[in-house]
Structure formats: structure tokens, C-alpha cells
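Much of what follows relies on a compact textual record of a protein's fold. Here is one such record, which you should read through line by line:
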Amino acid sequence: MISGRALGHTGGTLDKLESIPGFRTRLRLEEFQTVVQDVGAGMCGQTDDLAPADRILYSLRDATATVESIPLITASILSKKLAEGVASLVFDVKCGRGAFMKSERAARELAESLSKVSRGAGVRTVSVITAMDHLLGMTAGNALEVEEALEILSGRGPGDVASLSVILAAEMLCAASGDAVGRGAAREICARALSDGHALKRFEALIEAQGGDLEAFERRPPAPVRLEAVSPGSGIFSGIDAFVLGEAVRKMGAGRIRTDDSVDHSAGWEQIARHGEAVKAGEPLGVLHARDRESARTAACAIERAVMLDEPEGPLVIGVI
């Protein structure tokens, strides 16, 4: 898959993967093809050969307040995906506080735009609209999210991420089979691949093929500063506003303020409290991992103001188009 980097308050797949020592995302076309042939999957970014214009436009969107432009989002996503020569695509279209598309209507508009352009290129698409009002999983930040992904691939980790991963993977299996495999059967196959370790082995093979060292990743030094953020009140924990959390983590160095900023792979948020749990005022909700105490304190203040209590929990999957 040709992917992107951190943009606005959202994290970037390539930045996360590059928290693994040695992992290479800038692959020549022939290298990328070899990895896909040998492993069955590959991860890289735009290059001079693959979607070169998108690399320029992608970085400019942050600087020109056009991150949420549906035509530019459509062009950015599909310039990479169509360059891969795919026959079918499954999109996870986020909706809510932490998404570029704040409303279900806007999310459906983006999904329809992606589908229309894809159909014009002869590519079959499915869009799964999913909620992003609060954190999905228990971490936000590059290395922390990779660590969480490894936990999920090992049969542990947050259930919401594992469930959504199975749903999306099943849609991909259905699309690739031309609907020869039904949705129910596809979900069973994908859940089994997750539980029996097959998915983890494939991910490990991918990391090794692209130069990554998972043993070195597991020995990585922690962030210099760890600081708790606490609940401002008592009630049922409904999460933290995902946009505020994303911005707080970005400002700690996990994302970029300017296009030429370097990324701090160790910075991030590790949540302790689970959605739906009763919490008391002053009780720790999670831990900030930061390079300095000042940025951690600033992030903690923002997060504590964005805590949601006693709000109803909506569905994770809002719709499928």
C-alpha cells in the first residue's frame, strides 16, 4: 500500500512504521514489487516514480488550510491507490470529532466522491463509515500505536481495534473474491487469521522484508517524561475528544506543525481508563509520553478539558456504502 504521513491532527501510517528501527518506506518501484510478491503485502510512500505530485500537494494542504477539502482528499487517496494497479478498494471513512469529516453527511459525501472516481477508473469500492469521536484503542502516538498493533496481532489488545480490523479485512476479502466469499464467512476467516497468529507472522515478514528490526523496537528507550492526566469530574468515562487529543499529541512532537518538522516517535498518549468505566474526580485516565515536562503539562491540561463523561456510546460502524 502506498500511504502518507501525519497531516493535521491525524497520525501518519509511514511515521508510525518508521518508529521501527531500520524500517524503510522509501522504496524503488522494483523493490516495492518484490516485497509484495514475496510477502503478499508492502508499505511505502510517494516517490519520484509513484504518485510524485501527491507528495507535494499532501504537504501543502497543511499550510493552505485545505486538509478537509473533499476533492483534494479524493485526489490524494486515489492518486496513490490507483498507482498500485488495484482491482478493488475498501475505504475506512472516519466520521466525528476526530475526523476530517465531522458529520455523517460529510462522511457519506467523501465516500461517494471516492466511489465515483474509482468507478471511473474501473475499480470496485466499498466504504465503511466508522465513528471517530473518541480514541480508537488505547494509544495515540507512533511507537505506542505500533506496540498496540503488535498486541492485537498477538491476540491481545483493545477489542474495538481488533473488531474493526476484522470488519475491514473481511470487506477486502469479499471484494477481492468478487463476492464469492460471503461477509459472514469472510469475517470468520479474518478473525481466525488474527487469533491463530497467521496475521502476526505476515506482519513480521513485512517488517523484515523492508529492513525493520522488531527486537530493536521492543528494546527502544522510553520517552524521557511520563505524566498522568486525570479526570476533572466523576461519572461514566465516555472518552476524550479525539480532535483535542490528536492536537495535544501532535504538539508534543508526535506529528508535525510545519512540513519540515521531524517526528518524535516516542511521544504519545497511553490511556488507562476504558470507555464505559466509572471514574472519580482526580483519578488518572492515562499517561503522556513526552520529550519534556512543559509539553507534557500543556498536553495534560488540554486533554483534561476535553474529557467526556456520561455521554451515550454510539455504534462503531455507522454504515457501509
User: Anything to note?
Assistant: The two ends are 22 Å apart (CA to CA). The chain has twelve helices and ten strands.
